[in-house]
Amino acid sequence: MTKVVRLPLETLPDFPALHQIWQVLPQARLVGGAVRDMLNGMPASDFDLGTPETPQEVMKHLRDAGIGAVPTGLSHGTVTAVIDHRGYEITTLRRDDVTDGRHANVSWTQSWEEDAARRDFTINAMSCDRDGHVHDYFGGQEDLKAGQVRFVGDASTRIREDALRILRFFRFQARFGSGMPDQDTLDAITHGIEMIDRLSVERIWSELRRILTGPRVTETLNLMNQTGVLAACLPELSGQLPGAIQRLNALITSGGPADHSLRLAALLAGADCAPEAAKHCGERLRLSRADASLVLAFLQADPPTPDRVVTDGDVTRVLAETSRDVALGQIWLAEAQQIATDPTHHDEARWKRLRSQLESLPVPVFPLAGRDLLAKGIPPGPRVGELLSAIRAWWLQTGCRAGREECLTYLHDLRESFL
C-alpha cells in the first residue's frame, strides 16, 4: 500500500454531505472513479463509498443520525444515503465467492485489499479515507501517471469473472490510456471474446454507446476491430468494419456532432442493405424506440446534398418533409461518405453552406387540413385525403410558399377532376 499527498477533500462541493457520512461511518472510504479522477486532476462527480460495516449496520447508523437510508442493493451490500436530495452509494467490502462471467455471489469482508482485488483495473481499485489519504494496493497511481490501463491481477481471471470488463477496458483505454496496451492484456481479451455472448445486449449497448461518444473513438474502434471485439458487438458489419470505421472517422474529423445514434448510423451506412442491417442491429441491441428510429432515419436513401439541394426553396422542401435534426444528420452522414470514398471531390464550403441554410430557414407548415376541405363542401371520405395529398405535392413543388388562400384556390381547380 502506498499513500500520496493528501487530497483536498474539503474543496469538493459534496464535502458537507461526505462529512456527514464520515461522522457516522468513520471507517468508510471513497472508492473507484472519484479517487481516480481527483488524482488525475479531473472533476469528480460520482462519490461512492466502501465500508467494513454490514449493510444492516450502515442503515442503522445512518437512520440514527437522521440521514435517509435506502436499501438499493442489499444482496450486493449497497445502501444509498440520501442527503439534500442526492444519493451516495455505500457498499460493504466484498469478496467474490462464485462468478459466472455475468453475476457474482459475494460475501462480506473486513479487508480493504481483498475488496480492491475484485475490481477491474488498478486505476479503479484505489480508495481514499476521510483524511484524504489514498490507499493503493495494486499500483494504480503509477498506472494512471503512465497512461496504462491494467487489470488487477491476472487479466484472464478478471474477464472470466465479468465479460463486460472487455468493453470497459476499451472505454477506459480511450479515456486514460496512452500508446498500445501490453500484448498479454490484448491476448486475454481475444481469448475471452466468446464470453461477450453471455452478456445482456443492454449492457453491451451501454458500453458501446459510451465508447462511440467518448475520446479517441477511431483509435479505440480500430483496436477493438484488431482484437475481434467489435465484430462480436456488431455482427451486422462482419467483413466491413475497416470501411465503417473510416466513414465514422470522416464524420468526426469533419466536425459532425458526437451523437451516438448518428455515429452508429455512420458505422452501419456501408452495410449491405443498410436500413435492414440497422433495423436488425437496433432490434438485437434493444435500442430505445427513439434511438432506433433516428438511426433508420439517418440512413434513408437520397439524403440532402449540395448537388440535390441548391436553392432556399429546395431546403424548405427538405424541412417540410424531414425534421431539421434528422436532415442535418443525413447531411453530416452524406458528407462523411463522400470524404471516405471520394475525397478529391469534397468541397467543404458547399456542405457548410447547405447546413447553414438548413439551420437558418424556418420550418414551413402546410396551411390546410381536412376540416378546410370539408368546409368547402368536399364530402367526408377517402377523396379528402387524396385532395390534400395533391395540394400538398403542389405546395412542395412551389417551394412551400403558397398560403391558405392560394391552396384553396388550387383546390378549386382540382375539384372537377376529382369529383
Automatic annotation (TrEMBL):
Pfam families: PolyA_pol, PolyA_pol_RNAbd. Residues 28-150 form the Poly A polymerase head domain. Its cofactor is Mg(2+). The keyword Cell inner membrane does not apply. Keywords: Magnesium, Metal-binding, Nucleotide-binding, Nucleotidyltransferase, RNA-binding, Transferase, tRNA processing. GO terms for biological process: tRNA processing. One of its GO terms (molecular function) is tRNA binding. Residues 182-238 form the tRNA nucleotidyltransferase/poly(A) polymerase RNA and SrmB- binding domain. Belongs to the tRNA nucleotidyltransferase/poly(A) polymerase family. This is Polynucleotide adenylyltransferase.
